[in-house]
Design goal:
- The structure is a single chain.
- The protein is built from 3 helices and 5 strands.
- The protein has 162 residues and is of the alpha+beta class.
- It has a single domain, classed as Histidine kinase-like ATPase, C-terminal domain (Heat Shock Protein 90), CATH 3.30.565.10.
- It has a 5-stranded antiparallel sheet with strand order 1-2-3-5-4, with helices on one face.
- A hairpin with a 3-residue loop joins strand 2 and strand 3.
- The radius of gyration is 15 Å and the shape is globular.
């Protein structure tokens, strides 16, 4: 936990080329919104459809875990989803201020046995790096990174014009 009250996961010294953050209530109906918002944000890049689909699945799993495990299905709590574009990778963070857990808890292992889910296994299979930071009573932050060499050239404007 940092002084600002946010859980952290190895912040990058590299400045993001573009970023977005949305806050969603912890309701299953918002899974689709989180998935589509992040995919739309990354659609500015030269990614193939399968990469966007993998990102959407990873986001769905992380948000679903926040709803189920972070908040125990309480529908009135907030989940923050952020996404950033870096020259060589994409980064997605999903954070809740829910129950959290210690490193000793089985949930940290992501073995997919709890409630029949395969959330962390899917996140790890679709992303190049998945970092989990959690503390009891302080919430959980999942940071996922995907390498995208050549999708963004430093100094080159990201798609779109005004």
């Amino acid at each position: 936990m940092t002084d600002s009250g946010r859980l952290t996961a190895a912040p990058s010294a590299t400045k993001a080329l573009n970023e977005m953050t949305i806050s969603l209530l912890s309701q299953p109906v918002n899974l689709g919104l989180a998935r589509v918002a992040v995919a739309a944000f990354f659609s500015q890049l030269d990614l193939v459809l399968s990469e966007l689909e993998e990102i959407k699945v990873a986001v769905s799993e992380a948000v679903s875990n926040a709803i189920l495990h972070g908040y125990g299905r309480q529908p009135d709590r907030w989940i923050e989803v952020s996404a950033a574009v870096y020259p060589d990778w994409l980064e997605i963070a999903v954070e809740d201020r829910g129950y959290g857990f210690s490193g000793d808890d089985q949930a940290a292992g992501g073995d997919g046995e709890e409630e029949g889910g395969m959330g962390f296994a899917l996140m790890r299979s679709f992303m190049d790096e998945v970092v989990l930071v959690s503390a009891p009573g302080q919430g959980t932050r999942v940071v996922m990174r995907k390498k995208v060499r050549g999708a963004v050239a430093p100094g080159k404007p990201i798609a779109g014009n005004c």
